[in-house]
User: Fold this.
Amino acid sequence: AGSMISVVPPAGFLLTCSMEGALKTISLPGGRPNCIDDPLQLQLREPLTRGTYAFAVTVDLPPQKPQVNTFNIMIQDQYNNIVDAAYGIFGQEIMNMPAERPTLGWSRAEPGQPTMITVGITFREVVSSLQALLIVLPELFQHDVQIPIDVQNYNPRFPLAPGLDWADTQEPDRIKIFLDDSEDVTVIPADTYRFSFPALMPPDVPRKNIWFICLCADRSCKQPGDRQVAVSFPMAGFKLYEVAPESTKVSASPAKRRALPSIFGAATTMLALVVLQLSPDKR
Assistant:
């Protein structure tokens, strides 16, 4: 069984797990592991067995994509023998998008009960060339939107599409927020934006408990890997009975929608998501 995870990133990437809030264990066993930042190593309190695991760490990005943009992940036993590994995992493109600090909040986390989900994103600069925001829920989670006003916008500066149909809620595991397309160019002013909607907690959370906020260059985007997605931000999900951080809670009343009469950039620091699949014969 594996008791240590090592991640070797491409040149120019700095993975961090030791700072407060830098490591999200998601589904790693045994609670918070001991960690070393450079190179990244997680010493687990309980060994990994066959199955799927996910965790996330903070990463400082280089200014541009390195020539060799691949990651190596090794799983070692207590004697430092490699018991499973994945080499040459291709990294994502590095986009110049001035968006940062995606947030995820919830009102309650009791199994099988309704909850209010709040997601947020901050734009450091004015942004154009986007047509939609896509919020993707983890497997087992479903939104519980019954009528259009169940989806709330908390900042009137966000250029929502006119009318009541600015939120596409047809798929139970995603919500797409349309921007105003009445002008040739739609501007998102520099600010922080938050949206909330009702959802249903599953009986248990999935091991790959990851939420996404995707910034879409076209309204047809459906999932994080689509070519219409300019940038996608993974967010570590929450455990059953976990209390949401105060910083993710919205105290103001939802804003009345207001359409306003466009640029592109990426956060230099973001969350790096790692999903492990241990082979059946290597446990």
